[in-house]
Amino acid sequence: MSRFSAAEREFDHALPQRTGVLLVQLGTPQAPEASAVRRYLREFLSDPRVVEIPRLIWALILNGIILNVRPAKSAQKYASIWTPEGSPLAVHTEAQSEAVLRALSARGHDVRLAWAMRYGSPSVTSVMHKLREDNVSRLLVVPLYPQYAGSTTATAFDEVFRELLRWRNQPELRTVRSFPAHSGYIDALARHIERSWAVDGPPDCLVMSFHGVPRRTLLLGDPYHCECHVTGRLLAQRLGLAPDRYRITFQSRFGKAEWLQPYTDASLHELAAQGARRVDVVCPGFVADCLETLEEIAMEGRDTFMEAGGLDYRYISCLNGSDDFASAMADLIVTHLAGWPTLALSAQERQQHEQCLAARAERARRLGAAR
């Protein structure tokens, strides 16, 4: 048996080669239940990119404490944001995939676009197998993280590369590393916020909350902190905000180590104590709503601010499957697809292409190649 895998269908020289785009999101449990959360956390927290602690020590902590305590608590939080269609992150990612494909098609691009979860389902491996069955010979991988971090972007690339190690016929490969300053993304965020303010008016302060990472990663060279500040600064400029009208903060810290500061919860408490009557919170590091935005920010953040004396707290949702997001991502994708054949063929061009493929298959047959 060969160590390298191939498409399940019989190889056919007459099959047209296709260009594919793979969107990769972090992941989510399959259900808001302790058993499902435990499976998800085991996969997620076992990744050495996510937790950079010596493996033996971390295995004892993970299996002896965390996986026995955290799943039930996290399942309750997931249950508070779960939808009839399933996990918000999965629902929004699927909607985003469909919206981006429509935007690309409207511009005349014919690509095979799919989405996968780094942890959970649909897995990167299973989706890449489907792309291979569609004869994708050129693949653009787009992690859905605007700012690069080793614990998010890099591990998505790791999984793609790991899968390709097992392929006999590998595709031409490109990756999108990050897009913290992409004008289309900044404009999409700004328009989304401005629509909210057109109804409710602007707040005393706009809090831009990004997911946190250990401060140690910054000292080791991870650019995440810098890229978050790039996005925050450009968004503030686009909105015309003075420095005292916005804050860039970091949420979701875990454990006793120092994480990137200022912390979101502490900042919300401080703003209320300083007399801010209303704050709006937006999460420019997330393209789709999930547990960290819907529960930690929209719910826990509200409680923190209101209990500290604030009067009005508003969470502004992520872009999700909006047309603005789809347009921005289509711009980004088209830029990175430059030079690859993606434009839809006319009827005449398609006929000529099919004739070419048929002739190539006949030549292969005469040379004794298998179908």
Q: Radius of gyration, rounded?
A: 23 Å
Order of helix and strand elements from N to C terminus: EHHHEHEHEHEHHEHEHEHH
The structural class is alpha/beta
- What gap, in angstroms, lies between the N and C termini? 20 Å
**Main β-sheet, in a few words?**
4 strands, parallel
Strand content is: 5-15%
The poorly predicted ranges are none
Task: Indicate the percent of residues in helices.
Answer: 40-55%
Sequence of strands across the biggest β-sheet: 2-1-3-4
Strands, total number: 8
Give the rounded overall mean pLDDT: 93
Q: Helical region count?
A: 12
Overall 3D form: globular
Account of the 3D structure:
- With 371 residues, this protein is an alpha/beta fold.
- The protein is 49% helix and 14% strand.
- It has twelve helices and eight strands.
- The strands form two sheets. It has a four-stranded parallel beta sheet, with helices on both faces. The protein has a four-stranded parallel beta sheet with strand order 6-5-7-8, with helices on both faces.
- Helix 6 runs antiparallel to helix 11 and helix 9 packs parallel to helix 10.
- The two termini are 20 Å apart.
Tell me the layout of helices and strands.
Elements: E1 18-27, H1 34-45, H2 55-81, H3 88-106, E2 112-119, H4 124-133, E3 136-143, H5 150-164, E4 172-175, H6 183-200, E5 205-211, H7 215-219, H8 224-239, E6 246-251, H9 264-273, E7 278-282, H10 291-307, E8 312-315, H11 323-336, H12 347-366
Parallel strand pairs: 1-2, 1-3, 3-4, 5-6, 5-7, 7-8
